[in-house]
Design brief:
9-stranded mixed β-sheet; alpha/beta; 2 domains; Aminopeptidase; 3-stranded mixed β-sheet
Length: 440
């Protein structure tokens, strides 16, 4: 029987407290196979924990990071499912020959600020109104120490220090980071040279009705290894992209990733799994866009729309000053500064000069370019609404702009919520496939 057979429906995502209760119960009920310990404390005092489930004779050390960004709770539901089933099926645990180390929630403080949408309703508006994602310099996944060419970032947060201690202890052979996108299709970041593995993980998506992302890669320097599978972006690549664009790297590079840091010990097989909450069939449509537009024209129009959105958000933010201190205000200011600091300009320069942009755009590329702007607007618009007091003179303008962007996004997409059970089946299945691949 498959370890993931007969998954029950899942109607909501677990909270920070529920994850802590789950881990404690599992360790108490199975002390022979399960250990739980604190890695450290978050800035607000929440415990970051390491949940270890080990067979009698492990050959591999596997580290699975849940909630690397606080708006990505599919991974917490996946960890609950995997941990429960590994413990319930000791034969399967022994057959996998892996010691499993789970960080159930890498950013508990930020996760608490997202819990308002964890039980639905599953609309993009509700999600955006309760959304939080920290500024780059406060993201656990991208604040590991990084040094290159006289440039240095080395001020890890307490949460990052906790992950560093887990990596130093576990020295993983396999490192899996459980991420989520929003609308569109699934995609993966993986190591090169594993074609059969790419087929297996992408077929999981097809089996569970999750379209593949066939539009622009999230990072413009990622190389496509297979449809919807890309090379893992590194801090070095982000730094070099910023320098090539003439931007100040300090405005864009907030540090290294968990995989960057793990390479200090060995070269683990890394996988980042990016799944959407909503699907749209255009995400996987590789036919030519009926408009006949070139890929260059599509990308440049998207960048123009993004720049206009940045300018509008900046005007609303300036009109609201001074704002009371809040993580929402910090995040909005930081994301706007990153785009103004050269991220948009770097992509524009690449689109204007690279011959790769001469060809005709596909439906998936046109869709992803426009929806990335919708995602950016709704995320920052929702956080700005949370940052500005309702009695502020500018609140009405912000609310009206947000409502306008919600309506434009709704008119421009065919968003359909994906059952959480299917998302967990893909993420857990890809995690198991990674371990099986690493064994052989």
């Amino acid at each position: 029987m498959s370890l993931l057979a007969d998954l029950a429906p899942i109607d909501r995502f677990p909270t920070v407290d529920e994850m802590r209760e789950f881990a404690a119960r599992l360790a108490a009920e199975h002390p022979d196979r399960v250990q739980l310990r604190d890695l450290g404390r978050s800035r607000a005092g929440d415990a970051l924990q390491l949940l270890t489930i080990s067979p009698e004779q492990p050959r591999l050390s596997v580290l699975v990071i849940g909630q690397p960004h606080p708006n990505e709770p599919i991974g917490m539901a996946t960890i609950v499912t995997l941990a429960e089933r590994l413990v319930a099926h000791p034969g399967a645990l022994d057959a996998l020959q892996a010691a499993w180390h789970f960080v159930p929630c890498a950013d508990p403080d930020g996760t608490r600020l997202n819990e308002g949408w964890f039980a639905g309703p599953w609309t993009r508006e509700h999600y955006a109104r309760h959304f939080y994602r920290p500024a780059g310099e406060q993201q656990v996944e991208w604040t590991f120490p990084f040094h290159t060419d006289g440039f240095s970032v080395d001020a890890p947060m307490p949460e990052t220090l906790a992950l560093m201690s887990a990596i130093d202890e576990v020295r993983p052979d396999v490192l899996i980071s459980l991420h989520n996108g929003e609308l569109g299709g699934a995609y993966f970041y993986a190591a090169p040279g594993a074609d059969a593995f790419y087929v297996e993980i992408t077929q999981l998506c097809e089996r569970h009705g999750v379209p593949l992302h066939r539009g622009d890669p999230e990072t413009p320097f990622s190389v496509e290894l297979y449809p919807a599978v890309y090379t893992v972006p590194t801090a070095q690549q982000i730094y070099e992209f910023a320098v090539a664009a003439g931007a100040d790297p300090a405005m864009i590079v907030s540090g290294g990733s968990s995989l960057d840091y793990a390479r200090r010990h060995k070269e683990p097989f890394g996988l980042a799994i990016e799944l959407p909450y909503w699907r749209d069939p255009r995400a996987a449509d590789t036919t030519d866009d009926p408009s006949g537009d070139s890929y260059r024209d599509v990308v440049l129009r998207g960048l123009d729309l993004q720049a206009a959105s940045v300018a509008r958000l900046h005007a609303l933010l300036d009109a609201s000053a001074p704002l009371p201190p809040s993580p929402f205000a910090d995040a909005v200011s930081s994301f706007l500064a990153t785009d103004e600091g050269g991220w948009i300009d770097g992509q524009r320069m690449q689109a204007e000069t690279s011959p790769e942009f001469d060809r005709r755009a596909t439906v998936a590329e046109s869709f992803s370019v426009v929806d990335n702007v919708h995602m950016f607007r709704l995320r920052l618009g929702g956080m700005l609404l949370r940052a500005v007091p309702p009695d502020s003179p500018s609140y009405g303008d912000i609310a009206a702009t947000f409502d306008e962007w919600v309506a434009e996004a709704a008119a421009d997409n065919k968003a359909e919520p994906i059952p959480i059970r299917d998302l967990v089946a893909v993420q857990a299945g890809a995690t198991l496939a990674t371990v099986r691949h690493a064994l052989h």
